[in-house]
Structure formats: C-alpha cells, structure tokens
Amino acid sequence: MSDTAEKVKKIVVEHLGVEEAKVTAEASFIDDLGADSLDTVELVMAFEEAFGVEIPDDAAEKITTVKDAIDYIEAQKAA
Amino acid sequence: MFGLQGKVALVTGATGGIGAEIARALHRQGAKVALSGTREAVLAELAAELGEGALVAPANLSDPAAPQALVEQVEAGLGRLDILVNNAGFTRDGLAMRMSDKDWADVLEVDLAAPFRLARAAMRGMMKRRAGRIISIASIVGTTGNPGQANYAAAKAGLVGMSKSLAQELASRGITVNVVAPGFIRTPMTDALNDQQKTRLMERIPMGRMGEAADIAAAVAYLASDEAGWVTGATLHVNGGMAMI
C-alpha cells in the first residue's frame, strides 16, 4: 500500500471512529462508514491539511470512497 | 450553574458598552476571554481590569481576511476557542431615499458578513471537539424594523437566518448557535434624550426602564453555558417587554 493510502486510511479511521478493517479501498464514506455530509467536508479539509493539496468543491463532490480520495491526492501530488 | 471554567471565549466589539459587559460576565463565570475591537488602548484597559485570562486581540472586521486571522490569533494565544460572541456592529443610519450603496454595503459587511466569517473560522475547532457556542448579538430592530435603519435592520435580521441555518448544520457536533436581540439599552446616546423623549420611550417598555448592558451580558452568559446545551437556533429577546415576539 502506498504512503498516501496509509495516510488516507489513518485519517478516515481517526475522523470517523471506525475500525481499520472496514476502511477498504471501495468503502463509501457515507454508505459504508457512516459519515454524514458534514463528515465528508471535514474529511476533505483533513486531507487538504495533511497532504498540502487544494481540493475544490467540484472535485470534493466526486470523492465518495476511500479509493477516490487516494487517487485524487496522488494525481495532485504527481501533477 | 452556568460556570465557564476551562472555556475560551472571543468577544468582538469589546470596546463598546455591551461588548465589555459581555466580556466581564463570561470572565466572571470562569472563561478566558479574548477581547477584540479596533481601539487597542481601550481593549488593553479592559484586559487590565479583568486581570488573568484576558487576551487583547485587535481586529478590523471590515477587512474580509481579519476574521480568520482573529480566530487563529485566539487559538494560538489561549489554546482554543469554545465560545464565539459576535457583538461587533455599527450603524450608519439614513432614510432609504438617501441611503448610499456604500452605507448599505459597509453595514452589511461588518454587521453580517464578518459574523459569518468568524463563525466559519471558529466552527472548525469546535467541530473537532464536538462542542461549541456561537452567539450573535442582533437587535430588536431586526424583527420590528426601524425607519432610517434599513441597512442595520437587514443585517440584524440576517444574523437570525444565518444562525438558524448554522444551528441545523452544526447540531450533530454539539455546537449551538443562538442570537440575543437587545431592545433599547442605556448608553450615552440615550442618556442625551430629553425628558419628553424619555417618557415617550418608557411608555413603550412595559418594564419601565431602559436595558443595561448587564441585562444582555447575562443572556449571553446563559447561552454560553453547558446548561443551555439544548437551546439552539433560538433568538432570546431581551427588551423589557417592548416587543413580545
């Protein structure tokens, strides 16, 4: 697993207070991990802080799973 | 009851009579208090009066970047921010026929936009801690209207709608968002009214007296307390019965 993936999962675990095993790549923040809309905003802000990237609203809307977040952040870092 | 030990509050407009009294009340209940306003010397005087647990945090809220910086300054200086009191505001009265775009925009900027920006900056830490208080000082005229105050009344009514929306957004995080709406408060300006004007005003206030800054501060102290945890999206009218709404 990449560093980014590790870090993203750690943030999700801390933020949503879910078991690490549940935070799979395909897990949806809202449907599988019990996040509400405010949680998803907080997660995006936490990602921005942790990775030093900007995630605009239209991109944030499309980040619904753990994998979405990892892919977006890795693409930003590569750019 | 109503103790605020261990809490940190920020009071904007702490140079004014009501703001200073709110700061005193929160401090008396045990909170550390950051005092904001534009006149640093007046803030320093109040901080000296309060003693330990007071931070002078000057800010010019007509600058859109100031609210974020102010919240950061408070969090750096006092470690956190639990209670935001949006008290700063000013008037630029005039009949609508004669009210310039600038007079409208300037009042809306400081009296409505700045409280929003402060709330937005403050809610982040509050959300993380799953607790917080956002209290905005509106005015009776936000509900009743007042000739010559279209801008001010709009801003104060705006605070109510804003607070109700934020209350719904933040309730699940243990943050309450409320409004205190003062009626006529005794100030140097109202002291200058002549006897006839005073009599006419008193006829409209069932309690038969002007409000004191302490009347408003007590309402804020209550809403800031843990005991008010189930009160959110509310407007507490403190007006001697002048408007029962």
From TrEMBL, chain A:
SUPFAM superfamilies cross-referenced by the UniProt entry: ACP-like
TM helices/strands, residue ranges: none
Keyword Lipid metabolism carried by entry: yes
InterPro entries given in the database record: ACP, ACP-like_sf, PP-bd_ACP, Ppantetheine_attach_site
GO biological-process terms attached to the record: Kdo2-lipid A biosynthetic process; lipid A biosynthetic process
Superkingdom as given in the UniProt entry: Bacteria
Alphabetic keyword roster: Cytoplasm, Fatty acid biosynthesis, Fatty acid metabolism, Lipid biosynthesis, Lipid metabolism, Phosphopantetheine, Phosphoprotein
Main function: Carrier of the growing fatty acid chain in fatty acid biosynthesis.
Family (UniProt): Belongs to the acyl carrier protein (ACP) family.
Name of this chain's protein: Acyl carrier protein
Gene source species: Teichococcus rhizosphaerae
Automatic annotation (TrEMBL), chain B:
Occurrences of domain Ketoreductase (ranges): 7-188
Pathway(s) it belongs to: Lipid metabolism; fatty acid biosynthesis
Keyword NADP tagged: yes
Reaction equations catalysed: a (3R)-hydroxyacyl-[ACP] + NADP(+) = a 3-oxoacyl-[ACP] + NADPH + H(+)
Pfam families, per database record: adh_short_C2
Record-annotated active site: Y152 (proton acceptor)
InterPro entries, alphabetized: 3oxo_ACP_reduc, KR_dom, NAD(P)-bd_dom_sf, Sc_DH/Rdtase_CS, SDR, SDR_fam
Domain of life: Bacteria
Enzyme Commission number, as recorded: 1.1.1.100
Molecular function terms, GO-annotated: 3-oxoacyl-[acyl-carrier-protein] reductase (NADPH) activity; NAD binding
Record keyword Lipid biosynthesis present: yes
Keywords, in A-Z order: Fatty acid biosynthesis, Fatty acid metabolism, Lipid biosynthesis, Lipid metabolism, NADP, Oxidoreductase
GO biological process terms, semicolon-separated: fatty acid biosynthetic process
PROSITE patterns the UniProt entry points to: ADH_SHORT (PS00061)
Record-listed NADP(+) binding positions: T38, N87, Y152, A153, A154, A155, K156, I185
Role description: Catalyzes the NADPH-dependent reduction of beta-ketoacyl-ACP substrates to beta-hydroxyacyl-ACP products, the first reductive step in the elongation cycle of fatty acid biosynthesis.
Subunit structure: Homotetramer.
Family, per entry: Belongs to the short-chain dehydrogenases/reductases (SDR) family.
Annotated protein name in UniProt: 3-oxoacyl-[acyl-carrier-protein] reductase
Source species: Teichococcus rhizosphaerae
